[in-house]
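Kindly inspect this one:
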Amino acid sequence: MSAETASETVSVTGWGRTAPTAARVIRPRTYPEAVAAVRDCGARGGIARGLGRAYGDAAQNAGGTVIDVTGLDRIHVVDAGAGVVLCDAGVSLHRLMEVLLPLGWFVPVTPGTRYVTVGGAIAADIHGKNHHVSGSFARHVTSFELLTADGTVRTVRQGDPLFDATAGGMGLTGIVLTATVRLQPVETSLMAVDTERAADLDDLMARLTAGDHRYRYSVAWIDLLARGAATGRAVLTRADHAPLDALPPRARRAPLSFRPSRLPAPPALLPDGLLTRTSVGLFNELWFRRAPRARTGELQRLSAYFHPLDGVPHWNRVYGRGGFVQYQFVVGHGREDALRRIVRRVSARRCPSFLAVLKRFGKADPGWLSFPRPGWTLALDIPAGLPGLGVFLDGLDEEVAAAGGRVYLAKDSRLRPDLLAAMYPRLDDFRALRAELDPRGVFVSDLARRLNFQEPA
């Protein structure tokens, strides 16, 4: 089957379901078909797309071509002794877990969903709850094969400038075809989880600073509707992979089983306005109060700790047809004042966010456009139809940039281009390499046009 016969023109959007655009979608099944798709992108260029979990417009291309790589989904080699896997870029983290967990291995980094592809994990240089220990995904990739704009396939290794441009480069240097990834050894498929409540933001930051070094994974849910003395109150959960001897006897019979639970999907057409300040405020109050003040050693399934929302297919529908904005930023250590101001502004604005999490980042990764840097990162969701949201978030962007921070491009859908260079100091290096590698602008996306990823003047 040729790439041409596997194409159709459809409306494409990100997981936030905002700003859909129409594009011709090509679904190659082989590497030659992927090469043909790149050569057949047309005047509006093309961009690779995986499972569509980027929240904004990074995998959209209005009037052009979108190359769906999920058909490139083979796992080629698993070295169970060394803990290394070689796989196609269209393989999902979910599929890797199904194959690797029974062998005693886990993916080195996972975001809040396992339904992302390996290629997407590299393009966004995803991070997880263990960044303070393990860094982002590309740190564990030893090499990948990259299909570039001229139709050639290059083997790219760590230390190569093209590696650093592609890790976090949002698919704008080419299409990752295969990747070799180092894995995390585990004895069980359960997590040993400690949970505690924090009374306010300062209490939360003190707990994270004092104790994160004792855990591989750490994340805090924040109530961004709480005000006054409770501003920034949170539920902190930190965990490690449970050792075999921590399991009760019955669970030791199948310690590496992986059986995520799933609930029914929400209806396709939910009315707007379900997530109001009142409904989210009630949810937040209940969520905070039902959390234990302090509990240690609770055994949880991997899927429950890492990916609770994956148990609800199409959970993004609960925001209604208007969709939602996912906003994530990072500010460095020593800029806690900026984090406090932003949390107070969000709280005063009464943004109805029930998915708000705070984490600490560790050492920065080498990707030129990689998001993480040492410091504090806050992610929150907001219904897109909230009045005045654009102006409000523009103000937060300026606060973040003034503090030397940045927003996460894999979640962005509305950043102004004039702030991009301030947030990503290696932007001109990226633009220069991209101009040399892809002078005709074959690889392009709605995000790239919106943020003006052109050759530097």
